Amino acid sequence: MAEDDLTARRSASGVRGSSETVRIGGRRLTIEDVSAVACARAGVELNGDPTWRAHIERGAAFLRARLDAGATVYGVNTGYGDACVVGVPPELVEALPLQLTRYHGCGMGRLLEPAETRAVVAARLNSLAYGYSGVRMVLLERLADLINFDVLPRIPAEGSVGASGDLTPLSYVAAALVGEREVAFGGQVRAASEVWSELGRAPLQLAPKEGLALMNGTAVMTGLACLAFVRAAQLTRLAARLTALSTIALDGRAAHFDATIFEVKPHAGQAQAAGWIRDDLAGREDTAGQRLQDRYSIRCAPHVIGVAQDALSWVRRDVENELNSANDNPLIDVDGERILHGGNFYGGHIAFAMDALKTAVANLADLMDRQFALIVDDKFNNGLPRNLSGASSARAPICHGFKAVQISSSAWTAEALKLTMPASVFSRSTEAHNQDKVSMGTIAARDCLRVLELTEQVAAAHTLAAVQAARLRLSITPRTSLTAPLATFVERVGAISPFVGEDRPLERELRALTQSIADGQLVAACAPRAYDETVR
């Protein structure tokens, strides 16, 4: 297939809808780079620098030379794991990598979503491009092809203990490259071999160590962690906005967010959250008739949101360090002419980061659920209708507004809180006690994504209720007004879910709003400041 035809096919895949590309090799990737690739806003290109490319090829050549000289290299001319004591005769060395990909084809559970799969491939590509894995340029080119032509390995989510890396799920990436198993391509499930033929590419013949290099790393947990970070950062901003809206709905006090309060307890994330709320309440004046102190879920909201906001700073550090690392084994130090046997496949930093992040996010769910409970309850909402019903007086006795939505929100919150048990402490000794202390990083990342999903549902429910409550407050309390940012927010939410007068099913509106929260549209459209300003 001609290169022009390949370019056209790549454009038709939808991944390269613009000219944006993320360059791989010789530079440090950010979480946002991975997110852009994962969400199909960008393709990838390999660095054209001849020095970098030569370094990659030298690594593969050095490994080959050491084998020819009779050196013993783990996973290249030995068995894997506990079988490292088993020598592989020279005539079987070329066959060994393919064997590794095949016997690890035992994943279970849901398949990773397209965005998750792209994030995984991008993370693996960037690690191998670090230049310490002994792989050839052609392997990096094929990984780039997976992204640029949107050839997505069908990766089961379950089966990794997070050390020796994400072996089983990454075997599906390796299998796709060699033309085995199935991939998603052009909206269909296809045999990988057929897709490569259609693209004019031959399936990759793995060189010694290339199967191990593809699989013996932390790309699944790291790719998922990148996506989790972005969604968590969006939720901190949204939780602050909903706190401001709930303050208005409850006719609460803006003074709780005075800057001095947060200057004398100088947690940066807490001050940032208070600043967001203060901006949304700009110009609001407290009156003598208001409750002296609002309840904790309002008054202490910056202190809850701030924990998540501050956690994001070190989570970014650890996730991006893992993303920009050589995390397989053994490592090929071509400049030092050494082969280094170690444990960089261990995903402990990602495991701990995801365990901490899911706890911080679950606390956001709990905060929003508590605020929701206040604004629907006529014993605490300072004069709003019971359950925020917008029904006429004649129909009020049979209308229940947001009663059931609040119950559902409570269920989602409880499930999110239940999932905060840390995965990283559940290490299991496996593989004949060779892998006797493992990270559980991939389980932690999957748990974090599930907590995020549940919290986004809570946020969607709270958003609908807070907007309804603010509209009711505007009609009940004449002195109430909305700042421009809050008015824009209410208008945008109203386009998805109009005012609830007579009771109606809200599932479709909740799903639409949850998706808008998850993909960042609601925050991006309504927040004057980018969510990641203070988490770099």
* Average pLDDT number: 93
Q: What series of H and E elements makes up the topology? A: HEHEHHEHHEEHEEHHHHHHHEEHHHHHH
End-to-end span in angstroms? 43 Å
Question: Main beta sheet, described?
Answer: 3 strands, antiparallel
Look at the helices and sheets and give the structural class: mainly alpha
Under CATH at level 1, the class of the largest domain stands as Mainly Alpha
Question: Describe it for me?
Answer:
By secondary structure, the chain is mainly alpha-helical. It has 2 domains: 3-217, Orthogonal Bundle (Fumarase C, Chain B, domain 1), CATH 1.10.275.10; 226-526, Fumarase C, Chain A, domain 2 (Up-down Bundle), CATH 1.20.200.10. It contains 20 helices and 9 strands. A 3-stranded antiparallel beta sheet has the order 4-6-7. A hairpin with a 4-residue loop joins strand 8 (331-333) and strand 9 (338-340). The radius of gyration is 26 Å and the shape is elongated. The chain starts with a helix and ends in a 10-residue tail after the last helix. Mean pLDDT is 93; it is low at 13-18 and 529-534.
Summary keywords:
about 525 residues; mainly alpha; Fumarase C, Chain B, domain 1; 2 domains; 3-stranded antiparallel β-sheet; two-stranded parallel ribbon; about 5% strand; elongated
In short:
This protein has 536 residues and is mainly α. It has 20 helices and 9 strands.
Topology:
Blueprint: H1 3-12, E1 21-24, H2 31-38, E2 43-46, H3 50-68, H4 96-103, E3 108-111, H5 114-128, H6 137-148, E4 152-153, E5 156-158, H7 167-177, E6 182-185, E7 188-191, H8 192-198, H9 210-215, H10 219-249, H11 259-263, H12 268-280, H13 296-299, H14 301-323, E8 331-333, E9 338-340, H15 348-376, H16 403-418, H17 441-476, H18 484-496, H19 507-518, H20 521-526
Parallel strand pairs: 1-2
Antiparallel strand pairs: 3-5, 4-6, 6-7, 8-9
Helix pairs in contact: 2-5, 2-10, 4-7, 5-6, 5-10, 10-12, 10-14, 10-15, 10-17, 12-14, 14-15, 15-16, 15-17, 16-17, 17-19
